[in-house]
Amino acid sequence: MPDSSAPDVAVTARAITMRGPWGPVYGPVDLDIAAGGVTVLVCPPGSGRTALLMTLAGRMRPASGSLSVFGRTRVHDIFAHAALAGIDELDTVAESVTVRDLITEQLRWDADWYKLIRRAGEDDVARVCGPVFGDLPLPPLSEYVEELTELDGLLLRIALANTGRPPLLVVGNLEQVTSDPERDLLVSRLVELGREQTVVTAGVNGVSDHPVVQIEVENTTRAELANQQKGGA
Question: What residue segments make up the domains of the chain, in order of their start?
Fold first, then answer.
């Protein structure tokens, strides 16, 4: 009989690879990520890790191998059920805009085309940012993005990406927050989000003192890929 206590699987990847104009980017990579909670992919920073996170969120199609996210295998379907935040190539925010501007833009993007969305107010900040910030102070409407702390800036990017609360939330590397205490707060907030969603992120050294799953991932750096090619020569 199947084990009814076994966790549901959110992500299954088998031998997925990515190639760019200059050759391999990552892979082959195998992953099994359980549904719910936070999973940290432990691997060095770089284009390979970024591309892998984007693949898991349906923003890139693997060159080979198989990927299933909550049973969905088409990139378009994975995209529709995943949020992606904290990837500079995709959601970098202009420093000269305010929190009000960003939230207003997101609310307009989420709304039906025929609805008139006024400029964001305090209630909108609470609705958009509250689930992500939790007990932490919400960013002031008039604050410029460049004036936010690293933690608040990343939490804001997560909040903007996560307004639809999809099953999967993929967050760029934890090292974006360089302060150890603030990074600890970031992980705490991701753990809270993991109570309702499956959260996947990445880090160099992993995470301690938090209830997260850590998976070491190989074949994401140029050195690893070069050694792999030499071994197969």
Answer: 9-232
Asked if 129 contacts 159 with a C-beta cutoff of 8 angstroms, the reply is: yes
The model's pLDDT over 178-228, given as tens digits with 9 standing for 90+, comes to: 999 999 999 999 999 999 999 999 999 888 889 999 999 999 998 898 888
Reduced to 3 states (helix: H, G, I; strand: E, B; else coil), residue 166 is: coil
CA distance 101 to 120: 8
The residue-averaged pLDDT of 143-159 equals: 95
* Contacts for 161 with CB less than 8 Å, ≥ 6 apart: 83, 84, 85, 91, 169
> Which two three-digit tokens encode residue 134?
């939790």
Q: Is 198 helix (H, G, I), strand (E, B) or coil?
A: strand
CATH topology for 9-232 is Rossmann fold (3.40.50)
Give the neighbor-by-neighbor strand order of the sheet with 64-69: 23-34, 9-20, 64-69
